[in-house]
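Design job #97: recover the sequence.
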């Protein structure tokens, strides 16, 4: 069967496929789209689903044409291509089908990017933890551009170190940063710090093979080699002109970083920066609410307890006056004063006990988490007679003040629930850091959790358990409550700790290896070495989105 001149020179690909789904004939456009020689294509399985009449990759929300189907084709070299196609059976025997198809890879790519940005923006409306939001954002970047891996790093609480907060692609391992630091000690430079310090993207070609060939990266060869990747790009997260983190993108073989790719990464970096800012604002609002609540408690303390204590002191003075009299004091008067003092003392004690739980968490800031918990255990034993076995492991000094306060509140609530609901005689409390996570378990020998159909909330765990979980989720952690096999209840808290990459100035050397071009140049108008937060930019020369695009380089310097 011969093509007519019209079919041979048609702008869209045309192919005839046999009943087994193999190419029989292709026009010039089809051969170009498949990027293989015509002789190699004939007899080769086609990507089109002919027998069932629909594609395994169904149309997405943004696809056009109900009769058009989608498939993916892998050419001899380069990235996979996405084809939109239509089929029509040919008359006669043997059964054959003519297929018209076109390359929609770029269009689909743009649609995925738009959808990724939209989904990420929608996720910001939820109050999930920052780790969960940035993990989801990393997944969106990876899926939209079909990358090998993505990492998102942000500044820690101190503002002095970077910590990994979101990732996709690479398998997670607890010792990643230990190995990264070992690579730096062996002479590897961390080029992502260039992007952070200069607040501009860094793009390096052929980075995957270069890292595998560099002995300085030997500690991470197995981890970095778990995926096939080639180019590397690091884009800063900019917030009000200041870098607060970076996105590292690892590109699959055959992918090249161009201007549109950088623009997409910058758009997602802006989304990540908004997420970081959003969570910081929530944290500030919560801290403001705490301060206001403490001020309210102080006012209540003054308005009720202080006045009651003043009344007790006045009654004591009356007793002193009566005691100084030389004549006999009526028993009724003494009894009345004693009853008033007793009633006032009981009221004061009740009010103090009601407030002490809300006022006590600040002790974690004064004493540190371990000493604050020890003081809590001691006071609970003295007050209730409950026996404790307290086991404290190493690593608690890594925990920041805000995290420690929330952990203390969770532990205090767990112990409060044991005292109030469990009917226990003994509590085992364990605290320690394992695999870069703080793990706390509170186990009692009480009556345990009754089986209550239709509910997963332990008794007494309504507001208290919700508060515990919200405090844990603030740091990307979890709280689990469940029965113990031998009786009693166990509360388990797990909070991932930020493992930081120190912003060591020595990690970004001023001099490059001879003959090796820099990945990017200082922006116009700024002398080399001037920090991004230095002289104010010229208002007459605004930069689009606060960013510039470096020219991709084939430098073989360390990328990560």
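Job complete. Output follows.
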């Amino acid at each position: 069967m011969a093509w007519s001149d019209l079919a041979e020179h048609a702008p869209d690909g045309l192919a005839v496929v046999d009943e087994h789904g193999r190419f029989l004939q292709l026009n010039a456009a089809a051969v170009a789209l498949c990027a293989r020689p015509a002789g190699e294509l004939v007899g080769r399985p086609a990507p089109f689903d002919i027998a069932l009449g629909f594609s395994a990759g169904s149309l997405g929300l943004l696809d056009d044409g109900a009769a058009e189907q989608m498939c993916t084709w892998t050419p001899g070299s380069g990235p996979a291509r996405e084809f939109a196609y239509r089929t029509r059976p040919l008359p006669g025997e043997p059964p054959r089908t003519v297929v018209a198809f076109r390359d929609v890879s770029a269009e689909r790519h743009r649609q995925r990017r738009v959808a990724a940005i939209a989904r990420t923006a929608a996720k910001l409306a939820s109050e999930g933890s920052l780790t969960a939001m940035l993990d989801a954002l990393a997944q969106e970047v990876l899926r939209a551009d079909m990358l090998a891996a993505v990492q998102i790093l942000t500044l820690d609480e101190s503002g002095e170190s970077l910590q990994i907060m979101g990732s996709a692609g690479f398998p997670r391992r607890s010792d990643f940063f230990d190995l990264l630091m070992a690579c730096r000690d062996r002479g590897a430079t961390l080029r992502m710090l260039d992007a952070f310090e200069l607040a501009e993207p860094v793009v390096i070609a052929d980075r995957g093979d270069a890292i595998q060939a560099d002995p300085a990266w030997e500690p991470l060869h197995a981890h970095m080699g778990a995926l096939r990747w080639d180019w590397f790009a690091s884009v800063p997260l900019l917030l009000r002109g200041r870098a607060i983190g970076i996105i590292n993108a690892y590109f699959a073989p055959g992918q090249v970083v161009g201007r549109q790719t950088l623009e997409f990464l910058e758009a997602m970096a802006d989304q990540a920066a908004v997420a970081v800012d959003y969570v910081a604002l929530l944290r500030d609002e919560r801290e403001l609410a705490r301060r206001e609540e403490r001020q309210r408690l102080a006012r209540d303390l003054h308005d009720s307890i202080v006045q009651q204590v003043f009344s007790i002191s006045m009654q004591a003075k009356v007793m002193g006056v009566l005691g100084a009299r030389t004549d006999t004091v009526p028993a009724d008067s003494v009894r009345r004063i004693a009853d008033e003092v007793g009633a006032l003392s009981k009221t004061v004690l009740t009010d103090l006990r009601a407030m002490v739980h809300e006022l006590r968490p600040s002790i974690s800031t004064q004493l540190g988490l371990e000493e604050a918990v020890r003081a809590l255990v001691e006071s609970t034993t003295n007050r209730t007679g409950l026996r404790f076995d307290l086991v404290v492991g190493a690593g608690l000094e890594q925990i920041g003040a805000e995290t420690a306060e929330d952990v203390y509140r969770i532990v205090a609530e767990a112990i409060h629930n044991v005292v109030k609901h469990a009917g226990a005689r003994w509590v085992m409390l364990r605290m320690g850091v394992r695999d870069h996570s703080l793990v706390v378990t509170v186990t009692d020998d009480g009556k345990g959790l009754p089986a209550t159909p239709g509910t997963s909330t332990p008794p007494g765990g309504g507001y208290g358990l919700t508060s515990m979980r919200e405090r844990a989720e603030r740091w990307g952690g979890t709280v689990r409550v469940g029965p113990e096999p031998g009786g009693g209840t166990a509360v388990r808290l797990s909070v991932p700790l930020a493992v930081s990459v120190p912003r060591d100035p020595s990690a970004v050397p001023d001099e490059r290896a001879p003959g090796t071009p820099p990945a990017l140049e200082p922006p116009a108008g700024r002398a080399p070495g001037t920090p991004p937060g230095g002289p104010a930019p010229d208002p007459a020369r605004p930069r689009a989105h606060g960013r510039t695009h470096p020219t991709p380089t084939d430098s073989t310097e360390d990328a990560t």
